[in-house]
Amino acid sequence: MLLCPCVRCSHTVEEQWIRRMSEHQSAPEQLAAGKSQARMPVLCSSCSEKRAVLKRPKTGHSLCKACFFWAFEEEVHRTIVAAKLFRPGETVGIAASGGKDSTVLAHVMKLLNERHSYGLELMLISVDEGITGYRDDSLETVKRNQQQYELPLKIVSYEELYGWTMDAIVKQVGLKNNCTFCGVFRRQALDRGAVMLKVDKICTGHNADDVAETVLMNILRGDIARLRRCTAISTASEGDGVVPRCKPLKYAYEKEIVLYAYFKKLDYFSTECIYSPNAYRGYARTFLKDLESIRPSSIMDIIHSGENLSVREGVKMPVQGTCSRCGYISSQALCKSCVLLEGLNRGLPKLGIGKHHRLHEKILSQQPLTEREKRKLKSVDF
Amino acid sequence: MCQVEEEYHEQLERVDTPSASKKCVKCKEELAAVVIRAGDAYCRNCFRESFIHKFRAMLGKTRVIFPGEKVLLAVSGGPSSCSMLSQVQEGVSQNAHKKLRFLPGIVYIDEGGALGQHKEMRQKTTSELCDMFRSTSFPFYILPLEQVLDLPGSVLTPSPPSDQPGSAYKAAVDLFLQSGGSGSDGKAEEQECVSPPAVQESHTRLLQQLIGSAQTLTAKQDLLNTLRQHLLVHTARTRGYSKLMLGDSCTRLAVKLLTSISLGRGAQLAQDTGFSDCRYGDVIVVRPMREYSAKEIAYYNHMFKVPSVVIPNLDTKTADKASIQRLTQSFVTKLQADFPSTVSTIYRTGEKLQTAGGSSSSSSAAEDAQRCVLCVCGLDTAAEEASALQATLISEQLSRSSVPVKPEPHSPVGQCCSSERPCGGSEGASDCCRSSRHPEAIELRSLLCYSCRRTVGDMSSVAHLPQYVLSEAQRRQNRSAMKEQISEFLLDDADENH
User: Which SUPFAM superfamilies match (chain A) (predicted)?
Assistant: First the structure.
């Protein structure tokens, strides 16, 4: 559990959010009264009957539990309908990691599937990266979810797909660029799992905070191609071997997901990946959290900005092709995971980090690399 | 014992301090005087040359400024704009190599009223700047921000540009050369200077009320920027200047880019941070200092004694999280310290973006009804299916009462919409959701772009906005009401341009 950073109290971060939000709903009344009186119970602004128990981080309204659940679920439903994410009769794989996003996603998808008769067949797909102390615990949560929601489950692991676990990778690569490996491998692992289960679509639990962070990160990294694509709610669906992915929770704030899970008493695993503190994404995340504290609508504002960006003509964009070794989609001759794997297997961990396009042909044709190239690729900074 | 008398036979080993023994990377002869980036050490002359060259190259390759044109330099007193002023001064002077061939003027906007500064403080600053401007012998105008309250509504509508399409640059240069060069320099003209008129107390109070009605510092700063921009454009228009030069440096623009994204101005990014901004039609805003990092400018000003004045801003000496602009600035500066390529990466990303909905040439033909009333950029509030805007409207609607509790006397739409019929489709209908909170805001919201809506939403009362904004909004409202009445008789969709 994420403990309060003050180190003295023993509350978790989520409990503090919820406590603060329940307290806030009575503050305006106190101010209006002038002096301290007995707290007037604030009524829910939606049904105006029951007492409000929380304040929505997204809009600031005070709601009772039932109205909040309804509003949250209805928003996801509207998103799904407006973006035409699913068609009746499809098999949908829910990418489940055991964390709060995927647990809430599984719960809401099952609920909406029944309530609005989507006609979907749902299953859970989980990826085992091989991080001791983090992933094996969260996988237990996924197995419990499977029993609670009565959905079939498939677990794919890095070990069986690539022959490497994240722990082994970090030993070779170090603590700085390992998120690249994990992310690239996981994407392919999800697709492989989806093909094995024969699903038509995958849905992931990316929330509004994730999308906003990604927009910021792509600007900081100067990745114009990703910047254009990252606010799309679903990926392109052509090509075989490619299962389209979508984000039904795209407009749900992370804090609201926590509130939902807390009040519904959903069972989830909440620890950060032990390798994540040094990731570059951490900077974007801190910035986003600060922005949210200044103006809560910033998250939606950033997503709105990202959706309205347009790229000038004449800017070079990558073209989608296929990897010549494994057949997966790729914009280069070799797909990223093949390059990364090659680097790991040869003991040259920096092969996938940075731009070494010219070396791809050498690798493809199995030519040996020169000593100088080898030295450059081997250097790892911890 | 003291070892002064001793002599050492061998040379003492000295640690090789890189800066002392490094040669300039450009001329490779002289010792380096300044290191801009890691590995880029220049001597004084090479640095000066490259600095000046960058400025000329910026103006030259974009070919936006025509010879003989009147260009207004907006100087804020800070290092960046004073550096720009000194570059222009050098470039226009007689003995410059390849003289710059436009006619500059200077404008300074005194914002002391909005910041609550004392009269003496304001006068001191303006007199310092007055002396600086006088020495340049360009015409200069010093205006208090209070004048923004008296602007006409035409400031908010883009005027058609004077006929100077881009392809005619070569022709304009030839024409200029044929006419024997600029006619007006060489003569000791009467330097036109407009000193600040006596500012009325009531105006200052109105201005402070306006800024004070914005409840967050973010909204205050946004509003102040908008007002300043309007006054600059108005000055340029009335005095016959067709170009306005701003002194934004690369660092400042990178911060501005991130801030714009955070405020929801993604659609207007190219105009906010690009080299040329055509949203006002006849006055084009250019940013020639956009390739200089703040560090370079600081070094140059220090080494070549460019004068500048320190003038406080709304967010001076505030905490990091006081406003979005302040937070972004500290974020970028801190990140730049750890990753030195941050600012240039952000800048390059911004360069690759363009205004949503086509190039800027089509924007001048757009109806003014499609423009935001405050920032004069195209509206980006068409709530399409599955967009962030639509999601926000739905959330608002779902969190509000679905059953009317008591009749709201001042809401013209009456009962709020029921939950079955989503009213999150168009902006007009969505206003009824907010009617109970801001009755006057109904008129304004549909005329504003996404981020200006947020700014105005942070204001306690819209009535404090300057008269020209409110009357322009009223005018557009009337026009669209008129258009609705006669819509069935109009043959074309497009209205004629004003």
Answer: Adenine nucleotide alpha hydrolases-like (SSF52402)
Residue for token pair 């927009």: A215
Contact A96, A125 (CB under 8 A): yes
Tens digit of each residue's pLDDT, chain A (382 residues): 555 555 555 556 666 667 666 655 444 444 444 444 455 778 888 888 888 888 888 888 888 999 999 999 999 999 999 999 899 999 999 998 888 898 999 999 999 999 999 999 999 999 888 888 777 778 888 888 888 888 889 888 888 888 888 888 888 887 777 788 888 888 888 888 888 888 889 999 999 999 999 999 999 998 888 888 888 888 876 666 678 899 999 999 999 999 999 999 988 877 777 777 777 888 999 999 999 999 999 999 999 999 988 888 877 888 878 888 877 777 887 888 888 888 888 877 777 776 665 666 666 566 666 666 666 666 554 4
Please give the structure tokens belonging to residue B314: 């709304």
What is the chain B residue with the closest CA to A223? B349
Structure letter (DSSP) for residue A269: -
Residues of A within 8 A of B422 (CB-CB) are 78
Q: Which domains does chain A have, with CATH numbers?
A: 51-308 (3.40.50.620), 321-376 (no CATH)
The reply to whether ipTM tops 0.85 is no
Which DSSP string corresponds to A132-200? TTTHHHHHHHHHHHHHHHT--EEEEEHHHHHS--HHHHHHHH-SSSHHHHHHHHHHHHHHHHHHHHT-S
Ranges of beta strands (E only) in B387-491 are none
Model confidence, pTM: 0.83
CB B356 to CB A308 under 8 A?
A: yes
B403 contacts on A by Cβ (under 8 Å): 47-48
Q: What is the pLDDT of residues B284-332, one digit of tens each?
A: 999 999 999 999 999 999 999 999 898 888 888 888 899 999 999 999 9
Question: Which chain A residue's Cα is nearest to B402?
Answer: A46
CB contact under 8 A, A305 and B269: yes
Q: Which two tokens stand for residue B211?
A: 């800024």
Q: Are A270 and A100 in contact (CB under 8 A)?
A: yes
- DSSP run (H or E) holding B110: strand B103-110
Question: From start to end of chain A, where are the E strands?
Answer: 54-55, 62-63, 91-95, 121-128, 153-157, 201-203, 245-246, 310-311, 321-322, 329-330
Q: What 8-state DSSP symbol labels residue A31? A: H
Give the residue ranges of DSSP H helices in B138-216.
169-178, 201-212
Nearest residue in B to A304, CA atom: B388
Could you give the angle at the alpha carbon of B132 between the alpha carbons of B130 and B136, nearest 5°? 110
| A201 contacts A86 by C-beta, under 8 angstroms | yes
Contact of B113 with B201, CB cutoff 8 Å: no
pLDDT higher than threshold 60 for residue B425: no
